[in-house]
Automatic annotation (TrEMBL):
The keyword Hydrolase applies. It comes from Aporhodopirellula rubra. Residues 26-285 form the Endonuclease/exonuclease/phosphatase domain. This is Endonuclease/exonuclease/phosphatase family metal-dependent hydrolase. GO terms for molecular function: 3'-5'-RNA exonuclease activity; endonuclease activity.
Length: 303
């Protein structure tokens, strides 16, 4: 546990001790398990991955680059969770998943689904723009049994393309518009590896408060997302890298893994978890975390 995280815990722990319904959220790119990573191969670090997740004990966990056997392993090691995810290639078992997990005892599942980051999001395995690979998002609508407010939570997890600039920008627009439809009447939590820096167009498309619905469109206006990390650390600072390349202590680089929220949610803490062991990290990305609290809905400014 790093120093920054300890300080954040000290700040919020008085509130956490008396408020039982705070939400602990983690986003974690696991690195696909068949990669030829030598000493960092999945079989050599999978216990470390499960332990890292267990230490933070998220209520909601979004994973990226998750193959079926990796999802199965985490199901075995984290029995308190229910998971869902499908392969991006065929909607079954083939290809990486944007698998997500939620604590079974805490949440009641109301609905679930998947869509593809393309011009035909309902078409399984579809690909568009300049995307180099098939990309997708998985979602679940949940009722928090411990929540004080009668608002469901829409939890979305995604992974943007690592090469296609247009694809990332269009994916951000699609995510925002789709969340507006799926998340009507909900608070929204979005996790993902966005393969984009915070000064990029995809970031602007996701978080820009001036975005309006397309002229003549009957679709809902885009929901206003908040970057949880930037809410805690308002100014862009050095040392915000979330890609480690399996090397402990890497801080230089871009913050490409984000947790975003929309609706009546306050951000109590946000962190880049730089857990390491013997000079290595559990994956080639650092997990990112946030502690959230549902609140009365704040009115959004007109667009």
């Amino acid at each position: 546990m790093n120093r920054i995280w300890c300080l954040l815990l000290l700040i919020v722990s008085p509130m956490m001790s008396v408020v039982a319904d705070d939400l602990r959220v983690m986003s974690f790119n696991l690195r696909y398990g068949t990669a030829r990573d030598g000493g960092n191969h999945w079989d050599k670090r999978k216990e470390f991955v499960a332990e890292t997740i267990g230490v933070f004990s998220p209520d909601l966990l979004g994973t990226q680059e998750t193959l079926g056997f990796q999802k199965d392993y985490l199901n075995e090691k984290l029995p308190a969770y229910t998971s869902l995810g499908v392969g991006r290639d065929d909607g079954g078992d083939t290809g990486e998943m944007t698998a997500l997990f939620y604590k079974t005892e805490r949440f009641e599942k109301l609905d679930e689904g998947h869509f593809w980051l393309s011009e035909t999001p309902d078409v399984t395995g579809s690909i568009s723009w300049d995307s180099s690979l098939t990309r997708m998002a998985s979602w679940v609508r949940l009722k928090d049994r411990r929540g004080q407010f009668d608002r469901p939570i829409l939890f979305i997890n995604t992974h943007f393309d690592h090469k296609g600039k247009e694809a990332r920008e269009e994916s951000a627009k699609l995510i925002r518009q789709t969340a507006s439809v799926l998340g009507k009447g909900c608070d929204i939590i979005l996790t993902g590896d966005f393969n984009a820096a915070v000064d990029s167009l995809p970031y602007q498309r996701l978080f820009d408060k001036s975005q309006r619905r397309p002229p003549g469109s009957d679709s809902p206006r885009p929901r206003l997302f908040t970057d949880t990390y930037r809410q805690v650390a308002p100014k862009d600072q050095p040392g915000e890298a979330t890609f480690s390349g399996f090397r402990a202590g890497v801080v230089d680089g871009s913050r490409i893994d984000w947790i975003a929220v929309a609706g009546g949610i306050d951000v109590l803490a946000a962190n880049i978890d730089r857990t390491s062991r013997d000079g290595r990290t559990p994956s080639d990305h650092y997990p990112v975390t946030a502690i959230l609290r549902q609140t009365p809905v704040k009115p959004e400014s007109p667009q």
